[in-house]
Structures are given as structure tokens and as C-alpha cells.
């Protein structure tokens, strides 16, 4: 199965298996009555860009309703994206028709959140895990059973239990069955959508460890979706934080845990017990999150986090903060990006956007620049303290 990779850490030169560029997924809202007109859109995913290296792992984190599952479903092409590009293994799969998609359906598999609803209760474990082999006609019928047993062993279940039904297994074991099913076709990328959220805390770590072993052994890449930063911490060398359809901060794990610059990331960090110390770093400040994520049907103007952000100022309602490159492999979308307790008093983005400090158009300001806001990871970045660009 798969190539052997000794390191799972993404290197800047690492070839991406998946490149997502300005991805958008809007769901139409229809009016009632006979003639159903589109009266609006749920902007579930709105301009998201990231990469997952071959055999690597990116964590996608955010509260419920931020658009994480939708992002995962678009990548697996359960939905056709409204806009943007999805390049998998060098090919744009965002616009492929169902027929042309078939080979990619093998290469990208999904692990679902709820092991109780994602397995058909009327089928034996053997037929659940073996079904993809039969559908894709990959191995002779006689060999399916031995392949199923092999997979059961890989995920730590008794290979002799292939004839049992899902209800005969515990939650953790069912999730292992879901993982075995996702591995059947030897995918290159696994989209794991909160794979341990529905499990007892006591078995969450076991399942995460299993996924990590699988990643190491088979060199399969992961997009690992979670609603808090604790779960992805030990798994993902890179982390993207999502809020209301957009990525607000993305970077290498250590940058995110030690030097988070976005108030939302800082709030998520301070809510997680085992990273709390790192988040507050001895300082007393702490950002609390109040209320829920607003509706993506009519998101707040400017910065979408402003209705819950303790630092929000005028410019935040007027201008959308660009995803600014603030360090090697670290980006943040905030006018007042800074480490906790060290946020600047004036917006760092005003000059780049050609506006004054309140966010009004300013003919005296420099021209808008895209230099620091391009998708992917640039070598040139913006030093927030020095307010100047840093060449590699
Ligand atoms: N099929 C759909 N039709 C309409 N709205 C949807 C659909 N799927 C998700 N949404 C909406 O998109 C937003 C993002 O949802 P989701 O991607 O499930 O977020 P998350 O996984 O981060 O909790 C939510 O407001 C949700 O109600
Ligand atoms: S841009 Fe403004 S509202 Fe948005 S996170 Fe930064 S300070 Fe808060
Ligand atoms: Mg979800």
C-alpha cells in the first residue's frame, strides 16, 4: 500500500497532493410557493485556499457552523464547488463530470464523524469493508475476504469478526470499521471529519493514534477536521483556523500554538485546557468567546469575526482584512494582528489596503498590494512589528 514516508512534516518544497485555491461553496436558498426563486445564498465556504503535502496532514479547525464539513465534502466532490479550484495530484477535479471523477473517488476517501449513522446496520462488517473492492472490480472475488481480514487487523479489530453486524461493536470499534472502509481502496488522501468527536474521551486518543499509525505506515495524506485545537495538536504539522467560511489563520503548528496572531485563534486556544498555558504564555489576558457563529446567509461586513471580537474597531466593519503573510509559513487575517496582549493600536493593514486607520479610502495611502495575500506560502512576508516586508 502507498509509498513509504519516514517524515510526515510538510516541507516548503513538499509536493502538494491537494491544492485548494479560493474555494467557494454557496447553497441557494429558495422561496416557497410554486415558482421557487433563489432568494439568497448560504455562503458556507467563501474563498478558502490551502495545501496538503503528499503524506502530510493539515488540521482544519473552527467552531460548529464555520464551514469545515462543507469544505471536506467539496474536496471529496460530494458537492460541485460554486467557485475556485481543487487540484488533486496535479489535476483540477473541481469541474470534472461524474464519469471523469471515478478514478479520483478511489484516491480521496472520507471518515465521518458519527460511527453510529455512517455504517449500514443491515450489512456485515465484511461486506461494508469489502464493498468498494467489489464495486471497483479491483480484486478477484475469492480474495476479498482475505483483504477484509487484513484491513480489520490494520485497524486493530479481530479479523474473525468480519461476519458481525455494526451494532455488535462499540463506538470506538465502529469508527475503526469506518477507517478500514476508507482504507479499502488505498486512498492518497483521507478527509477525516471530526473522526473522534462522537467518541468517549477515553478512546479518542486511541483512535487518533491509529490514524497517525496509518498515516506513517501507508503515507496517506490527511485533512483532519476538528472543532478544537487539542485533537489536531499531535497529529497535524500545519493548522488552518476557519471562521464563518474563511480561513482566518494558517501556519505551522508551533507558530499557531505559541504565536497565534488572530483573536479567534487565541480564543480557541484559551478554551483548550492542555494548551491553555501556551496560549496565555504567563500573561493574564485571555479572550473569551461569547455567543454563536453568525449566520453565513448574511455575514457581517468587513471582518466576519467583528461581532464577537473584543478588539474590533471602525476599520473592521468597513474593510475585510486580507490574509496577510506574517512569517514564513504563517498567515493571518486581522487588521490588528498581534500576539496575545501585544496587538497594535493602529491597523497594520491600512496602508496595504489604501485606506486610513478608520478604513475609509485614502488617496494618500499606497496602492493596494497583493504581495502578501496570495494563496499558498510565500517566502516574502510582512513583519508586523517593523511594518515592512521581509525578503528571504
Ligand atoms: N446542504 C446545505 N444546504 C444549505 N446550507 C448548508 C448545507 N450544508 C451546510 N450548510 C450550512 O453551511 C454552514 C457551514 O456548515 P458546515 O460546513 O457543516 O460547518 P461545520 O462543519 O464547520 O460545523 C452552516 O451554516 C450550515 O447550516
Ligand atoms: S480584523 Fe478587527 S474584528 Fe477582525 S479579528 Fe481583527 S480586530 Fe477583530
Ligand atoms: Mg461539521
Automatic annotation (TrEMBL):
- Extract one GO BP annotation from the record: peptide transport
Keyword Chloroplast present in the record's keywords: the answer is no
Instruction: Spell out the Pfam families in the cross-references.
Output: ABC_tran (PF00005), oligo_HPY (PF08352)
One of the entry's Gene Ontology molecular-function terms is: ATP hydrolysis activity
What is the top-level taxon of the source organism?
Bacteria
- For the ABC transporter domain, which residue ranges apply? 29-269
The UniProt keyword set, sorted, is: ATP-binding, Nucleotide-binding, Transport
- List the InterPro entries: AAA+_ATPase, ABC_transp_ATP-bind, ABC_transporter-like_ATP-bd, ABC_transporter-like_CS, Oligopep_ABC_C, P-loop_NTPase
Q: What SMART domains does this protein's entry cite?
A: AAA
Q: Which CDD domains match?
A: ABC_NikE_OppD_transporters
Cross-referenced Gene3D superfamilies: P-loop containing nucleotide triphosphate hydrolases
Spell out the PROSITE patterns in the cross-references.
Answer: ABC_TRANSPORTER_1 (PS00211), ABC_TRANSPORTER_2 (PS50893)
Q: Which PANTHER family match?
A: D,D-DIPEPTIDE TRANSPORT ATP-BINDING PROTEIN DDPF-RELATED, TRANSPORT ATP-BINDING PROTEIN
What is stated as this protein's family in its record? Answer: Belongs to the ABC transporter superfamily.
Could you tell me what this protein is called? Answer: Dipeptide/oligopeptide/nickel ABC transporter ATP-binding protein
> What is the organism field in this record?
Nocardioides gansuensis
